[in-house]
Structures are given as C-alpha cells and as structure tokens.
Design a protein that fits this description.
By secondary structure, the chain is mostly helical. The protein has four helices and no strands. It has helices at residues 3-16, 55-59, 88-97, 104-113. 3% of the residues are buried.
Length: 116
Amino acid sequence: MNIEIKDRFMAAWEKYFPGSELPIVCFYSNELGDVEFPNRPKPNNKGYTCVFSQIAPVKQGRPRAFNMENLGCFGSFLPFGFDIDISEDVKNYICNIERVKKSYDHVESIYKHRPP
C-alpha cells in the first residue's frame, strides 16, 4: 500500500469521522499478495456459518479472502458473484429461512441479471 495514500486517508477519516472505527474495505482481485484464504469455517449448531462471522477478525486487522471452498454459507455465494445452481433448497433458504428476499422469482431474477 502506498503510505502517502494511507496517511492522507487516515487524516481525512479522523477529520470527518472523529473517533469512529475505520471502515471495512472489500474488493475483487485475482492478486492476493500476502493474504491467505482462511480455513473453511466450522459449522455452528445450525449446520452453517455466516460470512459475517468473519467481520470480527477483519476488524482486528486480519485480512480475509474468500472463494467457493472457504465460504461457510451458500447464501453468500450469490452476493459474492460465484456461480451456483439455484435449487429449490437455496431459494427456500433465502426466502423463507433468512428472509432476505421476498420471492423465488426475485432470487431467480437477481441471479440471472447480476454480473458474475
């Protein structure tokens, strides 16, 4: 990271958001530098692990990189741009369990029109 850019950002952040936590930055890349993929998360007692559980380590300064093998929750595959088969089970999970989308048609439309 260019240290001048970092210093300018830190000064601006403190000026405009004094005392606030730093933001979490996300981006797509084929180049990971020194970042390693974390181990696949261990399922909790419900049988899945939400990608948001990885926010705590990121806030502690440990970068995270994700791929199909280490995402613990299939619900995160679509927003992260990974191709998966949209089965009835996936649509049911997204619409009726997590309730993040209102209908199966909405899930199908998002998948069809989102950039991979």
